[in-house]
Prior knowledge:
Low-confidence stretches: 2-9
Radius of gyration: 25 Å
Shape: globular
Amino acid sequence: MKHHTTSPDLDPQTTPAPGFSYSRLHFEDLVDSALTHAHKLGASDAAAEASEASGLSVSVRKGDLENVERNRDKSLGVTVYLGQRRGNASTSDFSRDAIERTVQAAFDIARFTAEDPAAGLPDAGDIVSPGAAQRDLDLFHPWAINSSEAAHIARVAEDAALRTDKRISNSEGASVSAQQSHFFTAHTRGFRGGYASSRHTISVAPIAGKGEDMQRDYWYSSQRHPLELAEPTAVGRYAAERALSRLKARKIRTTECPVLFESPLAAGLLGALVQALSGSALYRKSSFLLDSLGQRVLPDHIDIREDPFVLRGKGSSPFDEEGVQVQARPVVEAGQVQGYFLSSYSARKLGLRTTGNAGGSHNLFLSSRLTRPQDDLKAMLEKLGTGLFVTELMGQGVNYVTGDYSRGASGFWVEKGQIAYPVQEITIAGNMKTMFQDMAAVGADAYNYGAKTVGSILISRMKLAGN
């Protein structure tokens, strides 16, 4: 695969990186103009961010080119504060007149907005120090790929899926995406910062079987650096094997049993925990984990840590969206909640201090103190014994206020630690509070899904609705 990184003889301050139209210096100038104009209008504080994104997405189906899409977006966002009144406005026009009109619009919105005691820029003690060197987390690896090269890679991936077995009868297609962006942001409390990042993906979705017995599945690879993507043939073959394994799926009777969540789905359980521990849900009292700081919400063998500084990590950043210093920290230790996910605003609403999570969580790692290196998927199925191994979930059946959980599911029925047959059209149900307490084991088959890394998770008991 061809790849491209910034040439060492280009100055990224004054010369746009390949694929971009604007340099860092240009963005600094735009942001400073916006902040200067806000001050001139009488704003007590202001923040601005200039950003640009560009990319290529190509999809094929059964060898034919289906879609070629190039995206290029730019934006300048401005937030103006008049005491504790706040106004936001944005524009994609970078002319001086447009910037001044945008600042004026934000200013006018602030004038007519009610005061909010929690509104305002972060406190000085939480902000990354002006002039402090900002960590390079190696997030920017542009992929110099054209549409015909991307289509070729997509065809190779899809062809590998179709050649895996003659029962792979059809395909929903394969796609290749190369995306990159950069931004610069500053505010009147002294913060200045920005960086470029990239994200590239190969995905395939084959269909197995025919007539009444047809099944689809998919697989993908997504990385910051194009050279770290999985081989297209490997992505295609694995997607095909997943689809084939689902053929001749049955329904099962309504029962109660242990449930093993495949690692990509286990990341969804971690996501539900993050949502329940996020400041916006907590101050609105719309979380089933209210007042859980210091409380045990998971078994004592479970730890969750957050690390914003993973090189090339998908959730890595040297600061949060407000310019607040981020840090590696325990979120859950021995089952006890050590910290929430707070921005300056939600922290003030709760009478707490920001955790540097304006914009969301950073890289999260869920682990169990009981997990041994040999606890691969085969070992986890043995721990499951007789029960359900879930590989796909449907619907959005999580009530974050009560914790009630009910999702359509498919996967495999397991007997005595061995996969017996594929199953479909079932519903799994429980309550997240109980499910978290019932996490019996975590596999060593750790999988990185976005900014979350977790192995398969065994829940000791859930309700299954089938026939």
